Structures are given as C-alpha cells and as structure tokens.
Amino acid sequence: MAQTKIQKFKTHLQQATILTQVAVLAAAALVPMLLTGNASAAPLTNRKVTITSSTISRTGVQYDFEFDFASTAVQGIVFEFCTTPLGTCVLPTGMNVNRTLTTLDGHTGFPTNATAFTEFVTNNTGECTGTAGVAGDTQYCVSRTEAAAAVGTDATIDLGAITNPSAVQTVYIRVRLYSDTAFATRIHEGTVAAAIVDQLTVNGRVQERLEFCVAGIDDADTLPVDLTACTALSDSNVDIGIIDESSIAISPVNVTATNGSDDDFGILMVNTNAQGGVVLAYYAEDPTSVLGGDTHQLKSFRVVPTDCNASAATLNDQCFVSAVNTGAGSVLTTGTELFGMYIPCVVQNTGGSTTANLTTAASAYNGSDNTVTTVADCENEAFVSATGTVAWNVAGTADTLISSTTVVDDEIVKLRFAATASATTPPGSYTVVTTYIATGTF
Prior knowledge:
With about 450 residues, the protein is mostly beta strands. It folds into two domains: about 40-195, Sandwich (Immunoglobulin-like), CATH 2.60.40; about 210-440, no CATH class. Helix content is about 10%, strand content about 35%. It has helices at about 1-35, 225-230; strands spanning about 40-45, 45-50, 60-70, 75-80, 105-110, 120, 140-145, 150-160, 170-180, 185-195, 210-220, 250, 265-270, 280-285, 300-305, 330, 340-345, 360, 390, 400-405, 410-420, 430, 435-440. It is rod-shaped. The model is unreliable at about 1-5, about 10-15 and about 15-35 (pLDDT under 50).
C-alpha cells in the first residue's frame, strides 16, 4: 500500500509540473500582446518624424510624420508622446501636445487622401484615451470617414504648434492606425523618435578697426591697393618746385633739372568699420624754432627760422599769405601771393575697396579742378586758375577735410598743394608740416 501512495504522489507531481509549464508558456505568449496592445497590428515601415526645432521648451514646433503601410483602410490615427518606446506612457516633462494647442496641418499619401482627417476631440474613445484637451495629455488623435483601402507609400501627417520638452531627452511617439473611427481595431503601428537637445552657441568678436595712412606719392606710381601697401610707402614729402609770380605751382609738379620738385601729391588712405563713419581732419604744425621768439603766422607756408610780420597780408616777409578755410576757400590768381591745399578727388576700388562713402568734402577744400575727366588722373590735370580754389588752416585746432557717415574700405583722398608768389615775395626755401587725424564713430 505504501508503494501505491508513492505512485499516486508522483502522478500528482507530474500533473502539477505540466500545468505550471502550460501557465508559463501562456504568460510568455501574452507578453507581446501586453506590450503592443494588439498582437495583430502590422508594423509601419520606413517610419520617421521630422521636427522643425530640437530646442528645449521651443513652442510652435512642427512634427512631420512619414511612413509606409500595406493595403488597408485608415480611418483613425493615434499619436502618443512618451518617454519610452514601450510600457506605460509618460509625457516628457514640459511637453504640450494637447488638442487645444496642437494643429493638424495636412496629410498626404493615404487611400482617397482627398477625404480629410480632422482633429478628434472626444476623449476616452477606444484607444484614444489621452485627449482631454489639457496640458498633461499624452495623445493627439485624428479621424475621418473613408472605408477605401489602398497601399500607403510615403504617407505623411503634419502636426504643428507643439511645445517641446523642457529638458534634454528623446521623445518616443507611438503611432497607431485604425480601420475604424472608434479607435477599436488597430491595423498598423510603429514608434518613431525625436531627440530634444541643447543648442550650441558659437561666440566670436569683430574688433573696432581704424587704419589710416598718410603719404606722398609720385603721379607715375601705382596707387596702393590697401593700407598695408600704403604704410609701406616711405615718402612723406611733397615738393612743388619753383614758385614765382608768373604761374601757379601745384602738386604734382613735373621734375626738371632746375626746379627741385618731386612730382608728388599727397594721399590719405583710410579703412574703418566705424558704423557712424569717419572724419579726416588736419592742422599745420608750428615751426620748431623761429627767430626772435616770433609768434606770428606760425602755421603758414614759411621760411624757417625767419621772423614774419604780424600782418598776414604782408607781401614782403618770408611767410606766404594763407588761403581762408571758410566758405568756398580762396581763388588762386597768378601773381597774387597765396598758399593752400584742396581735394581734387577721392579714389575707390584701387584694389580691394568695396565702398564709396567718403563723399562729404568740406566746401573750402572742394576745389574746382573742372578739367578733371577721370578720377584716376585727377592729379595730372592743369589747375584752372580762373575758378580753382584752395584753403588753409592756420588755427590751433584740426580742420575737417572730408568725412563719411558709415564704414570706409581702403578709400584714398588725393591732396594737391598750390602756391603763387607776388612780385615782392622774398626768396627762400618755404615749408610747412601738416598733421592728419582720422576719427571714427563706432
């Protein structure tokens, strides 16, 4: 009898083991159904979502979905926005996809696509369960009434006005297609992902720039193409040669065996990114030494270290009468002692220049050299003594020559110096030193 009881116990144990194995197998078979929600739904293929911004907390973001599906009728779609691709859906922190905010902006590629999807507004209908129209909604649903079936190739649904999550993370959107408008019969599904990331900020600085060059240059030489070429020029003298009462000497004066000229004219070249423009000004320096502690006409074209008359109009001392720097300046008339300077032209595009902004010349220095026919040759033309004017600054402060109201790129201001003597102008070697200042407004 003891053996019979043992045999019965073994039989019950075997039966219990078999039942346990069946239960395990049944539970294993149920897992995919629990994870997907519907074991019969076919996968969406070639699926993706394209977003217009990956910035955290960005509002008004477009989420454009694209996928393929086998031939079927599609009457409902659920978009579920989650922190994970499977399991319980949790809305990413700060994300807002509720139907009062999100917009349905279009769709293509669906069977009978002309039948439009519309936003579904009834919450808790079938598997459309997260569309209460509040900030915590996880779902956005669309539906239409169209039973026609066909293959969906590159089908698209565009959702707009979405607010991105408030932290860096990946958003997983579970997309489910239904053959009915009650979201009961799931036919296709698939998950897509969008990464919300930090922005990359790139910093850099453009420094204030003001480059200025002053030089003398032979009229046969090529003008410098930029400030580097200009500052490489070593000449800082302009010699107008022999001055007498029978003519007007004006730079550049062609060199002869006896006149001592250098065939030069003066140039000012400027390059600046000063948005408010630049002002070019000058003043004449006092001589470093004069006879008898002279204080008269120190900024005139003069013989150093001569002692000049207190009257600037005197024609028999070794200081030239200076042109005025007001109004239109002074007219140069042969035989009437006068010294001055004027701007015949401004040259742009000598090489890499891209601007033509130095256009406002002070009227006194805007001489009437009206025989000039080309900007490139403005220093080679004869001065028109009947209408030509010059000016000269004898004050102790800088006098504006020309200015711009915006940036200047390697523009060249040409300067011509002119003089004529009277019959009583004393002989001598006359000179004056000028200082030029560029002031940019940044």
